[in-house]
UniProtKB/TrEMBL annotation, chains A, B, C, D:
Assembly with partners or alone: Homotetramer.
Pathway: Amino-acid biosynthesis; L-methionine biosynthesis via de novo pathway; L-methionine from L-homocysteine (BhmT route): step 1/1
Gene: LOC117736815
Organism for this UniProt entry: Cyclopterus lumpus (Lumpsucker)
Domain Hcy-binding: 7-308
Binding-site list for Zn(2+): 211, 293-294
GO molecular function: betaine-homocysteine S-methyltransferase activity; zinc ion binding
The protein's required cofactors: Zn(2+)
Described purpose of this protein according to its UniProt entry: Involved in the regulation of homocysteine metabolism.
PROSITE patterns: HCY (PS50970)
Keyword vocabulary terms for this entry: Metal-binding, Methyltransferase, Transferase, Zinc
Cellular component GO terms held in the UniProt record: cytosol
Protein's recorded name: Hcy-binding domain-containing protein
Cofactor note: Binds 1 zinc ion per subunit.
Length: 370, 370, 370, 370
């Protein structure tokens, strides 16, 4: 069913292009009223397709070259445990999500990635057979539809990610694999370099990091993956889709160990200017698939696209509604706001929290455990 | 054209009901890629109706009883000065915005408010004739469509708001008027109590405050308006639609005088728990029309609706995707996250900024001017 | 017994000279191990005269023109209630303190001020007769020794201060009176302007503010006193001896209502550069007796003397060990420390707390009471 | 000349006793007006012996078992380079400092340690002969007087410290050696464990860390030294005299790289309660010589002595002026202050800075250099 003319993800990365990823779905749709925090399941693809479609469109308009299917936590075992959805099957959600992603991707120059994430079954059973069967079922749902490649994401044990990659590679489509781990390694202590080697040996075409930690920390982890691959004489493309939050206190635990997770993360949100810095550092680290995860809203994705616009040679559609580095403030009536219409102002601003009774850092839950 | 069965805004307020307002459009649509900061004009109603419709729906779903037309800064003189739109007229935007608001309002139990805001003409000409002509033109656009009442908002000179009210009252529809002023009064120093008296004498049925300052400060100002009305022996309903940001440093200048305005306001965003406190204090102050302005996203409106759900007797549709006070965290896999599934945790949390090199308060631009 | 050649406090102030006061004794001697927090009584004048003498000397060396007797809370009723001293009488302490102050004052160009502070008797009995008898007794102790003038300080009811002034004026010596009140007035709500008028009418030659609040707030209060005197057609010299701590949260309650009082005030301590700003603003407000209270260490007094050195025409002895505005850093081995050897660096520095889990402001205990 | 009855430093440590060190001299005497920042030389021992004697006494009274001679930076080459002293020789200072330390030590149960610190000659010449000659000259000054043992301190190249130890051991007196290094090692990258081994092999009886970094970081470094000694099969006593400031941003550079050094360090000062935690963690790490360096005032030393009072079996003299854990607040007139008269309050307090426009962490100068 796939369009013949569409240039695939590997065509683009092999050509040295920067691929802009999309942002985070579940936290943003929670704020919009369509996802339930705690469960974080994607039944909205069936229940409220207009809401999912609109968010896809905003990411596309912001410059995303990939629309990920809204299928987070959409394995049958996870849906069952969550208990959030009774009358909708995983297959229904997966299929609806593929259609929505395809519809919007076709409105622009974007590819559709079918996404799988970690399964409760892995920790519970540790059975390769069972876990692979779950990934196989989800893959089969996707293959009924027109998707361009796969992404394995939000997995914190490299072994489970290897199993997912092995399953998905049976489809002959490209596979990207991102772990949600820290520079210290996965949940069993496997270092990032070794994780990358194992994922590539399992068949992954693209490897990297998503979620759990802030952008600059995730770049450090991807650099360790890159070094691991180089030491092993392996090659793969690198991708990154970090949190859109400042999380200086976290290490192994990730942002779920912060006291503010998940309902008071506002204070930690990145500005668009933080994202410019992130995109530049990711690019300089050799990463060419650059997107975001939880906390990345459409304007954050636009900031990535604007930062790499010289390399890409164009701006995204949504930049028609954005003066670069605040340029559109130049027509403001207040002189002190006009004075902010340039890069130097925003790059050097240290934004105040407006909360004088709040601290700047918290004690993470995984610190409590020590 | 108006539906006979619809209960009007005054029917509701006279009956003592709590009316939940909607949230902020321009800042949220800027982040979604449809509004240009600096200009803040609403051409998206024509250019990208699906984006405006979706945000209307999210507010409706979050519990809003009023859908405001997306017509901010949509007077002919403002559109011209802004220079952001060339091939779309103000009348086109006003009419498209009315249709979008009506379409979504009819999906639930909501009213449509046609909104006008301050005009550049007032400060420039100070001509009652010219300013009233501008408001009359915008009103005539609205009256071609099916709207339920009018709101005058974001006006910082009470005199201009009086003129707007006088024009809109010629329509015989109810009129609400909210000023964007501080407890110190309007830009000419007219105190809030006197402002309220003048607005009611001009014909306003509902008076209050919107935008510019944080919720608790705006409540203080509305209380001063209420006291002014009582002293004058006048009666009117009270409404409030404050910023969704912490702005402890501002006084006369409002949030545009903060260094973070408009592109680094993230740190100051209110949590849903801040909104619970706000909604309760607004209710206790006798305010019955409770909504939000810039910074209020759909989940903030839901928090208002949840806080007053006992008084209203029902929860909004979007609460099906929200455990009250974090209840849905009770099924989380991490024990320390499960421990957050209750009100006491979130009410007492002082969220960290995650930005240890940033201060907690800024020097506002209007302080610099002293 | 008084030296004929010594120029008195009024000679100096009438001549328009700046009089530099000394700093705080009880908090500093608590840290040195000689005063017990909670009691704050001055038995060290008898028990450890070398420690009191040394601190007097450090203030003299820092530029102080007045050495206050170390007789805080040394009324008989306070000593009895405190229960901290059993075998030493108030008279012994008062007399020893006068001798120590005189000894050190005579080592330089300084005067001795005999100091009285508020009595428990006032709040307990509210009897003018009893309270005046207590002040009379302490005055009689002082008059056995060679003191130059009196200071009434740390009184928060203007009435009690009036009574003290009336007693002390029977000695025919000059009397200064400082209240520990906020811009909102004394504990009975008497505004600062009226307090000043009443104190001058009671006989005070110098009036002002000491302790309880930070320097800039205390300057605001002294300005209100000055305005009150001007409105009443009265004249008096102005003095100020504020806290050496930042206390932005306090209003009526003063620093004892801060959670950090008294054992975690370190974070709030003023730098010498904060003191430069204070001394300049005090001078510009027309205050000519400028010193400090709790938190003012010798180097803070030196900063006052250095700030007004142009007006006074000389530097204090301790400036031989201080490069103005950090000049002595010019010979440091590290280039980045050498770069700090000038005024602009220190005036613009916003010092970090080094405590990322601490907030910048606290909830004061008197706010809890609301 | 040494008293026969005095129990030496090794007698005490070998017996398992906790030895409480004294605090910091140069920064405290700078604030008192006797030392010039930038130079930091100890000419006050000759110029103002009463000031040095008083600070010695305060540390003794706070519980110190060792009085260090006030001879920091008192090598001939350093004095010459500094240029701060013209008419006083190093020998005069060294001898006067020994007399002052002895006089005060004899007022209690304390020993005198003759102290040498790093020499400019080391970095300039790197000549073992020249550097050893400088240490020999200073040692000879000390040996004319009655001192009990030597301390080498504030050296950041382990090689220089080895040379100092080798010289001082020719006296047959015990020698302690503390480096001012981070957990990352000395200025040539020699790790702490290896530094400890080299110092013990050079003859040091006691090894550890002083100055430059905050207490908990210094404990980490001493633990690394301890592990290094254990791995090498060596034994030595451990000592620690850290900064009395919070310095979370520093690593190699130490506190001189902080923007606040040296004139705005107030905000970072440790409270007495921070010191309790430090003393306990130092004790638990097996360190038995526990004192302080810059920033440790007499009340901080008292906090060490109070924390280890159970182990030592007694409280220091200055505790007669201190209620343990704030107990003396129990008689305060304000109920909310009385409520602070217990350990739980102070252990859990997160003190506010009172500076809402200041950040909580700074960018250290050695970070700028990267």
């Amino acid at each position: 069913m796939e369009s013949k003319k569409r240039r695939g993800i590997l065509d683009r990365l092999n050509a040295g292009e920067v691929v802009v990823g999309d942002g985070g779905y579940v936290m943003q749709l929670e704020r919009r009223g369509y996802v339930k925090a705690g469960h974080w399941t994607p039944e909205a693809a069936v229940e409220h397709p207009e809401a999912v479609r609109q968010l896809h469109r905003e990411f596309l308009r912001a410059g995303a070259n990939v629309i990920q299917t809204f299928t987070f936590y959409c394995s049958e075992d996870k849906l069952e445990i969550s208990g959030n959805v009774s009358n909708i099957s995983g297959a229904q959600i997966n299929e609806a999500a593929c259609d929505l992603a395809r519809e919007v991707a076709n409105e622009g120059d974007a590819l559709v990635a079918g996404c799988v994430s970690k399964t409760p079954c892995y920790v519970k059973s540790h059975s390769e057979t069972k876990v692979k069967a779950i990934f196989k079922k989800q893959m089969d749902d996707f293959l009924k539809k027109d998707i361009d490649f796969f992404i394995v994401e939000f997995v914190d044990h490299v072994e489970e990610a290897e199993w997912a990659v092995e399953v998905l590679k049976t489809s002959s489509k490209p596979v990207g694999a991102t772990l949600c781990i820290s520079p210290q390694g996965d949940m069993h202590g496997v270092p990032p370099g070794e994780c990358a080697v194992r994922l590539v040996r399992a068949g992954a075409d693209i490897v990297g990091i998503n979620c759990h930690l802030d952008p600059l920390t995730c770049i450090r982890t991807v650099k360790l993956m890159k070094a691991g691959l180089e030491n092993a004489g392996l090659k793969a493309h690198l991708m990154i889709q970090p949190l859109g939050f400042h999380t200086p206190e976290c290490n192994l635990g990730g942002y779920t160990s912060l006291p503010e997770y998940p309902f008071a993360m506002e204070t930690r949100a990145m500005t668009r200017w933080d994202v410019h810095q992130y995109a530049r550092e990711a690019y300089d680290a050799g990463i060419r698939y650059i997107g975001g995860c939880c906390g990345f809203e459409p304007y954050h994705i636009r900031a990535i696209a604007e930062e790499v616009s010289a390399e890409r040679g164009f701006l995204p559609p949504a930049s028609e509604k954005h003066g670069l580095w605040g340029a559109a403030l130049g027509m403001h009536t207040k002189p002190w706001v006009r004075a902010r219409a340039h890069r130097e102002y925003w790059e050097n601003l240290l934004p105040a929290s407006g909360r004088p009774k709040c601290p700047s850092m918290a004690t993470a839950a995984d610190d409590y455990e020590k």
